[in-house]
Amino acid sequence: MGQGEDRLEKQIAFIREMDKEKLIARQTYLANGERKENDAEHAWHLALMTILLSEYANEKIDVLKTVTMVLFHDVVEIDAGDTYAYDEEGKKTQADREQKAAARLYGLLPKDQGEKLKAIWEEFEARETPESRFAHAMDNLQPVILNVASGGKSWIEHTVCLSQIMGRQKDTKKGSEVLWDYEWEKLIHPFVENGMIIDDREKE
After folding, report:
1. Which of 42, 32, 22, 73 minimizes the C-alpha distance to 143?
2. Model's pTM, two decimal places?
3. What are the φ and ψ backbone dihedral angles of 27, each rounded to 5 degrees?
């Protein structure tokens, strides 16, 4: 097998492995509330949102790089599993599980591609660039959009309080102040007003 053919075999093998992302269940329901989304659907939604909403980024971003970032940001969950945003116990082992997963999964690719994509994932995790900050804003906003559309189904199921939501959203405005303002005023605050999200911030 020639070098070019071997490279293609590795790329096809990686693509086959990525199909497993469709099997990783998340805790957020689809907008119609009928079932929970999977990781592949989540990543697709973030890519779509990045293209549509990039004009609201606080800083100029490379849109293609950001789309790549959100498409690959949860690939590690094929091995590591999904860690729910409000699962404090799961978060304790999350970083170690995901680092091991990244080494194996990106290691399936030709070295140059694997290293490039792993670096983009690490950049997402570090939250230190305009692209990673906006990618996290998308990752934070998308579940809120779906939760509101489904009548707060996942929030109610997990008895999520406002302090938890605000903790999760603390970096959203670093990516986009415009989108954070919209998210608070149009999506989260109305659920606090109608009592579907318990405002427990005074207990902190």
Report:
1. 42
2. 0.90
3. -95, -10
Of 18, 36, 39, which is closest to residue 28 (Cα–Cα)?
36
pLDDT at 204: 44
The residues that bridge with 195 in the sheet, in sequence order, are: none
Cβ(118)–Cβ(107) under 8 Å? no
Angle made by CA atoms 61, 50, 46, in degrees to the nearest 5 = 135
Average pLDDT over residues 131-141: 98
Helix (H) / strand (E) containing 38: strand 36-38
Residue 81 pLDDT class (50, 70, 90 cuts): confident
Q: How high is the pLDDT of residue 39?
A: 97
Q: Going by C-beta distance under 8 Å and a sequence separation of 6 or more, which residues neighbour residue 189?
A: none
Amino acid 8 reads L
Element (H, E) at 19: none
Please tell me the distance from the alpha carbon of residue 130 to that of residue 60, in angstroms, as a whole number.
7
pLDDT digits (tens, 9 = 90+) for 26-59: 999 999 999 999 999 999 999 999 999 999 999 9
Neighbouring C-alpha atoms within 13 Å toward the C-beta of 177? 2
